[in-house]
């Protein structure tokens, strides 16, 4: 019988519910249980694919090409669970399904209501994840904060779930904030009490509280929370601010959160094995032998979440190389204003991430030109590869007006363009090349050295492609096309010779990097940076 854990959030947002969920999944997985996770998002957008990264953070792409919430990235980084389109559901998707059933006449004229129809569809989606994954435990993170109007149907579905699958098979965890008030030098439990009260009004009695806190919780405070919130004292778990998110599974483990969960479910399981995580991730992270400076040149620099997986992949590479990486986030528009020398001098590596739209494009191209000429290790991702092609066509092959038709539709030298078949597409949502595609790697290239494999698979999210009409010319000028999607003869990887590390890819390797298995493209970038130092 599958067990279900619902994770809700209280008091405020941004407490790190996704990371808490992933960390709980990690400690359960370390007990040899098969886990999977799911995110329920209260907004009405049908998927996060068309949402502004400045509002919503990065769009995380799964193997099967779903454009999902960035929390699914945490789930895949912390655990072995692999995410699919089933693991993320939004209010928009749920309503979409119910309304299309209604249009088809499936309800035979009945009145369609939030309860039972919307809540029923939410529960179906949760059960589908259990069925597809065959997991022992499904963890369901409910987005938003308890008390929001928007998340009510999800909470109601979570409440009903107990009736469907039995009391013993469901557990509720509530993540709250226990703030420290500096002027009073006191820790306050009231917001947590109120948040739990709100949950109880909805009919959910939390079994475990995870308290985010700046200061350690004394026994007294824990007792108070336990009494007022009706949760056993040992189930009041403290989650202090930590330097790295990868410490959190260890923090939970220390408070035997895994035992508390297993005993609730009456599950007996193997002892935990988190030593590898401790040794290979946390200890390495905190014992760097060198420091390197990496510039990330993009247009969503102001928001940490917009390039979430990229920053995480850089951290994984730092762990793998046992170096400290200092990331300078550079707005590509600033490079347009001040020139690359001023902002990029002294950098040991330059990374240009993906993106959409023309803003800041020329700055990215200039940054790449700087990396090329000054032999600074460089990694380009998706749009970063497209800009690297433009820079090379202009700077080395003499095609002064080379561009992508995304930015200059009428350019005479469209080195990046749409494929014929895409020119008809009008919808914006879900119409890109999405998800995993195979890529054949050419022997004796940097890509072959990095991957140590001749056939790889990576995740995509883009519309534009390298224009094969320019392949011969660019090759004759020295560009190496080292990775190809053979079925359609599409360029996946480009690189330059006579450069310590210059490689760019049409896909998004950042989605497959893990703290204990850094992606080789990132790992070798940081290695080249450390060697340059
Ligand atoms: N805008 C480019 C395209 O659609 C690159 C997309 C990306 O970087 N993810 O092809």
Task: Tell me about this structure.
The chain has 533 residues and is an alpha/beta fold. It has two domains: 3-280, P-loop containing nucleotide triphosphate hydrolases (Rossmann fold, 3-Layer(aba) Sandwich), CATH 3.40.50.300; 288-532, Rossmann fold. It is 38% helix and 22% strand. The protein has 19 helices and 23 strands. The strands form five sheets. Strands 13-12-14-15-23-22-21-18-19 form a nine-stranded mixed β-sheet, sandwiched between helices. Helix 11 (275-285) crosses helix 12. The model has no long low-confidence stretch (mean pLDDT 94). Bound molecules: glutamine (GLN). Glutamine (GLN) binds at residues 354-356, 382-383, 406, 461-464.
In short:
By secondary structure, the protein is an alpha/beta fold. The strands form 5 sheets. The chain has a 9-stranded mixed beta sheet with strand order 13-12-14-15-23-22-21-18-19, sandwiched between helices. Strands 5-2-6-1-7-10-11 form a 7-stranded parallel beta sheet, with helices on both faces.
List keywords for this structure.
seven-stranded parallel beta sheet, binds glutamine, 19 helices, 23 strands, Rossmann fold, nine-stranded mixed beta sheet, 2 domains, 22% strand, alpha/beta, 533 residues
Largest sheet: 9 strands, mixed
CATH hierarchy, class of the largest domain: Alpha Beta
- The total count of strands amounts to 23
Radius of gyration, taken over Cα atoms and rounded to an integer in Å: 25 Å
Q: Which fold does the CATH topology of the largest domain refer to? A: Rossmann fold
Give me the CATH superfamily of the largest domain.
Answer: P-loop containing nucleotide triphosphate hydrolases
Straight-line distance between termini: 55 Å
Number of helices: 19
